[in-house]
Amino acid sequence: MKKFTIILLGIILANCKGPEPRRAVKKSSGSIIKESVARNKRLLDEEEKLFQKIITKDTAHTYTHSDVGSWFYYNVKDTVNSYTAKPKDLVTMTYTILSTNNDTIYSYKEIDTIKYKVDLQELFPGLRHSVKLLKENETATFLYPSSLGYGYHGDTKKIGINIPLKVTLSILKIEKENK
């Protein structure tokens, strides 16, 4: 019996190992991210080509390229005032959203007049930037690549996935932040 107990104890001890770490099932090579970056670059390139066609056809306006990637021209330009909205200023504005084919997606009436606290409230990225480019009583029309519009989500209503936008923005009033 003593031999049996020793053998049994030896078998038990031989089978008891420490915890063995789990091996990764798959190693991520980052290929999905690389593919996504390549797809986004292609999309932006296509949208830039579309904008260049629009700009070339529109000989009535002089377009300016903003530092975030949108194109715009002034419908109404103020040459007297110099103040543009700063973070935390309250801006009263209206805007309309069009497709690049000039089909109305959201009209001024649908959106109505908006009071926007600069950089503290949600707007899509291109519009958030554009508000800071214009002065009081100015109106400009912007061309936004989809990445500055509603991106790959769309707005879940009228604006689909990866749709470049044309927006006419009017700044009605800028109230400076009270410090």
Description:
With 179 residues, the protein is α+β, with helices and mostly antiparallel strands. The protein has a single domain, classed as Chitinase A, domain 3 (Roll). The chain has helices at 2-15, 31-57, 108-111, 125-130, and strands spanning 64-65, 71-76, 90-98, 104-106, 114-117, 139-144, 165-175.
Write the layout of secondary structure elements.
Layout lengths: L1 H14 L15 H27 L6 E2 L5 E6 L13 E9 L5 E3 L1 H4 L2 E4 L7 H6 L8 E6 L20 E11 L4
Antiparallel strand pairs: 1-2, 2-6, 3-4, 3-5, 3-7, 6-7
Q: How much of the polypeptide forms β-strand, as a percent range?
A: 15-25%
Oligomeric form:
single chain
In CATH, the architecture is Roll
Q: Can you give the mean pLDDT? A: 90
Any idea what the radius of gyration is? Answer: 29 Å
Kindly report how far apart the N and C termini lie: 91 Å
Q: In CATH's first tier, which class applies?
A: Alpha Beta
Given as residue ranges, the uncertain stretches (5+ residues, pLDDT < 50) are none
Quick one: biggest sheet? 7 strands, antiparallel
Based on secondary structure, the structural category is alpha+beta
The run of helices and strands is HHEEEEHEHEE
**Helix count, DSSP H or I runs of 4 or more residues:** 4
Overall number of structural domains = 1
* CATH topology descriptor: Chitinase A, domain 3
Q: Please provide the count of β strands.
A: 7
**Helix share bin:** 25-40%
Shape: elongated
